[in-house]
Amino acid sequence: MRTEHTVMIDRPPADVFAYLTDVSKLPEWQSSASEASVEGGMGLGAHVHEIRTLLGRRRESTLEVTEYEPPRRFSLRVVSGPLPYEVRHTLTDENG
Prior knowledge:
The radius of gyration is 14 Å and the shape is globular. The relative contact order is 0.19. By secondary structure, the chain is mainly beta. The model has no long low-confidence stretch (mean pLDDT 95). It has a five-stranded antiparallel β-sheet. The protein is built from two helices and five strands; from the N terminus they run ααβββββ. Strand 1 and strand 2 form a beta hairpin.
């Protein structure tokens, strides 16, 4: 299954990218996330550990960063966890 979601944010892509890739902020904008951390520094190949509540149960996953191109692309895929998925973020400047 594939879904697409567009969000307009009145900030430069670099600001949004910095917030998006700071995984400690994940619980601020994803209600199912309660914790997230990255091993070492953020970048291509980094592993992100997250804890979420799904269907009333606590679930842990590890995701690998598969694209890291500041300030435009940030993608991840689950390498371990109960639900396999990939997420791709593409940031564009709509208003110059």
